């Protein structure tokens, strides 16, 4: 998503300039997906990353 930003230093996610409240686990899943954009991820890969 071009209108979504994720700051890995502060763990702040914004969309259209508005902050989005996420739990630690939700943030970890989103970060993993964004770092692996365009890749097919298995449940195991996601589960291994998001503990």
The 3D shape can be described as globular
CATH architecture: Orthogonal Bundle
Strand order of the largest sheet: 1-2-3
Structural class of the helix and strand makeup?
Answer: alpha+beta
Give the strand tally: 3
CATH class, named: Mainly Alpha
Order of helices and strands: EEEHH
The CATH topology annotation reads as Arc Repressor Mutant, subunit A
CA radius of gyration is 11 Å
Distance between the first and last residues' Cα: 25 Å
Q: Enumerate how many helices there are, as a single number.
A: 2
Counting structural domains, the number is 1
CATH superfamily: Winged helix-like DNA-binding domain superfamily/Winged helix DNA-binding domain
* Percentage of residues in DSSP E strands: 15-25%
Helix content: 25-40%
**Major sheet attributes:** 3 strands, antiparallel
Low-confidence stretches: none
Mean pLDDT: 93
Overview of this structure, please?
- The chain is α+β, with helices and mostly antiparallel strands and 51 residues long.
- The chain has a single domain (4-49), classed as Orthogonal Bundle (Arc Repressor Mutant, subunit A), CATH 1.10.10.10.
- It is built from two helices and three strands.
- It has helices at 24-35, 43-49; strands spanning 4-7, 12-15, 18-20.
- It has a three-stranded antiparallel β-sheet, with no helix packed on it.
- β2 and β3 (18-20) form a beta hairpin.
- The protein is globular and about 30 Å long.
- The chain starts with a strand and ends with a helix.
Write a short abstract of this structure:
This protein has 51 residues and is of the alpha+beta class.
């Amino acid at each position: 998503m071009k209108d979504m930003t994720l700051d890995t230093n502060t763990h702040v996610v914004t969309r259209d300039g508005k902050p989005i409240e996420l739990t630690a686990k939700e943030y970890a899943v989103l970060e993993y997906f964004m770092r692996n954009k365009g890749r097919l991820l298995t449940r195991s890969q996601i589960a291994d990353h998001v503990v």
